[in-house]
């Protein structure tokens, strides 16, 4: 039995702790915040009409089998803890210039039929060809990458790739290039581009292999948890406690002790004595780990990819909008948005809030999250990360957040959804707020190492492991849960 300390109580940390405790290890989770869940955040706004409940992080659960596997591995059933509801449409896509919206769904034939009805038979045939390629990429990724440790690019190169898999993955190609090659309708290209943002990346630079992301969402469905996605954190915490895991909130780890090339424990702010450990699992951003907790200049130098952040409005809206659970309102010039969000530091072009951004709106038809006669809106806009460098924006600059909130509401009104005179309240969350709340550097949603290949799960010291969105296999609820499985399997059972 090993003494294991998990630094951070996000989904990856809690999932790892539960798996390790179920196999006989002594596990302690240390979380700097007062609540668990990490980026799977929640917020309650009380009003005379009643409370509004918001998920301030993920709003969609995909790959449900990953979570069924997690709970079964810890001796429980997912359905005993969570109430999963399938969503159709998964996303309603509203394109510029008017015309029909496109509702995605988990039935490939039905989705192709919807594309054909909205955009014509050629567009539907294009999508079906792309879908066959996406399926091949997904199968290769799921078989060879997502459930095993990848310690370096050499590990990827050493895999026994089938020639057909390599052709589908398209090494060196971008997601944007893939869309231009396969999709003749610009609206479908725009839809495909959006999935690069699921990894925090720019589709013009993101690898074509990310075509597996829409496949995972549209093949296995999108799901909502009644009561909000935050109930997943509650369920994982309950599993941990039932399995004997010690969970301490308000405990800030300041350093990992790793003298002699192996971990010995961690140091806590305000506590003189170290917390001993045979194994440390870091559920923090890799940038935070290698910059602050275990300084490693060589590994830190590799974390150079830029990952987008998010600007959020939490709105209490009176009446019924008629919106789908998820709606995406695209801009006329998608490239202008990415130019603004990422900037061009090499050319001296600073990042800035996009003037005409894509707007994501989540409205859950769930009486558990809003008073009768009202809706709780979560509005998300892609945004530059917080900071003072050319590729970032100082979101604490006086007046900026409120002015941009006004702009986002104006954009929604321009796109046919005007709620400015139906607001019971609004609250703003900037990338700086996410940085403060979760320790995500600059407020990066999917970790600072956005893109395909993330830092390895195995750390540079013996007994150190990484889980979470900034490590392999990447960001998003199912990926961080798979990272927990990889790490728990590598550590192995206590017996």
UniProtKB/TrEMBL annotation:
Query: Can you give the residue ranges of the Amine oxidase domain?
Result: 12-293
A GO term, aspect molecular function: oxidoreductase activity
Is this entry keyworded Oxidoreductase? yes
**Superkingdom:** Bacteria
Q: What Gene3D superfamilies does the record tag this protein with?
A: FAD/NAD(P)-binding domain
BP GO terms, sorted? carotenoid biosynthetic process
This protein's pathway reads: Carotenoid biosynthesis
Q: Enumerate the Pfam families for this protein.
A: Amino_oxidase (PF01593)
Tell whether Lyase is among the UniProt keywords. no
Q: Which UniProt keywords apply?
A: Carotenoid biosynthesis, Oxidoreductase
PANTHER family in the record, alphabetically?
PHYTOENE DESATURASE
NCBIfam families, alphabetically? crtI_fam
**Family per UniProt?**
Belongs to the carotenoid/retinoid oxidoreductase family.
Q: What is this protein called?
A: Phytoene desaturase
Q: Which organism is it from?
A: Micromonospora citrea
């Amino acid at each position: 039995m090993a003494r294991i300390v998990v630094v951070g109580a996000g989904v990856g940390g809690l999932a790892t702790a539960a798996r390790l405790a179920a196999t006989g290890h002594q596990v302690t989770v240390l979380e700097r915040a007062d609540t668990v869940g990490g980026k799977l955040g929640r917020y309650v706004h009380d009003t005379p009409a009643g409370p509004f409940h918001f998920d301030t992080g993920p709003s969609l659960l995909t790959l449900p089998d990953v979570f069924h596997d997690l709970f079964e591995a810890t001796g429980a059933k997912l359905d005993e803890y969570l109430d999963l509801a399938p969503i159709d449409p998964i996303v309603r896509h509203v394109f510029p210039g008017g015309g029909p919206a496109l509702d995605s769904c988990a039935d490939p034939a039905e989705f192709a039929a919807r594309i054909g009805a909205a955009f014509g038979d050629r567009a539907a045939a294009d999508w079906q060809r792309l879908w066959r390629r996406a399926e091949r990429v997904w199968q290769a990724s799921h078989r060879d990458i997502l459930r095993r440790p990848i310690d370096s690019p050499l590990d990827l190169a050493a895999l026994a790739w089938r020639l057909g898999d390599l052709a589908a993955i398209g090494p060196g190609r971008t997601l944007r290039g893939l869309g231009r090659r396969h999709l003749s309708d610009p609206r479908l290209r725009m839809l495909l581009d959006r999935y690069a943002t699921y990894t925090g990346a720019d589709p013009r630079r993101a690898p074509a292999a990310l075509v597996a992301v829409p496949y995972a969402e549209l093949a296995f469905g999108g799901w909502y948890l009644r009561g909000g996605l935050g109930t997943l954190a509650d369920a994982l915490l309950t599993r941990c406690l039932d399995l004997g895991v010690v969970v301490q909130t308000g405990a800030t780890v300041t350093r990992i002790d790793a003298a002699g090339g192996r971990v010995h424990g961690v140091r806590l702010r305000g506590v003189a004595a170290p917390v001993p450990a045979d194994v440390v699992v870091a559920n923090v951003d890799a940038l935070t780990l290698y910059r602050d907790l275990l300084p490693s200049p060589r590994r830190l130098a590799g974390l150079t990819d830029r990952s987008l952040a998010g600007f959020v409005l939490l709105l209490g809206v009176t009446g019924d909008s008629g919106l789908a659970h998820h709606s995406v309102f695209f801009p006329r010039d998608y490239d202008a948005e990415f130019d603004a969000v990422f900037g061009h530091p090499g050319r001296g072009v600073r990042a800035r809030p996009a003037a005409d951004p894509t707007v994501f709106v989540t409205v859950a038809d769930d009486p558990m999250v809003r008073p009768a006669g009202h809706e709780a809106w979560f509005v998300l806009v892609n945004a530059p990360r917080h900071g003072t460098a050319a590729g970032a924006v100082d979101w604490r600059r006086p007046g900026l957040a409120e002015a941009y909130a006004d702009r986002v509401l104006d954009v929604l009104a321009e796109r046919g959804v005007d709620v400015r005179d139906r607001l019971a309240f609004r609250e703003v969350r900037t990338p700086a707020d996410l940085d403060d709340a979760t320790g995500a550097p600059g407020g990066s949603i999917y970790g600072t190492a956005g893109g395909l290949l993330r830092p390895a799960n195995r750390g540079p010291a013996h007994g150190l492991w990484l889980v979470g969105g900034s490590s392999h296999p990447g960001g998003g609820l199912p990926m961080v849960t798979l990272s927990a499985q990889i790490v728990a399997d590598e550590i192995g059972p206590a017996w």
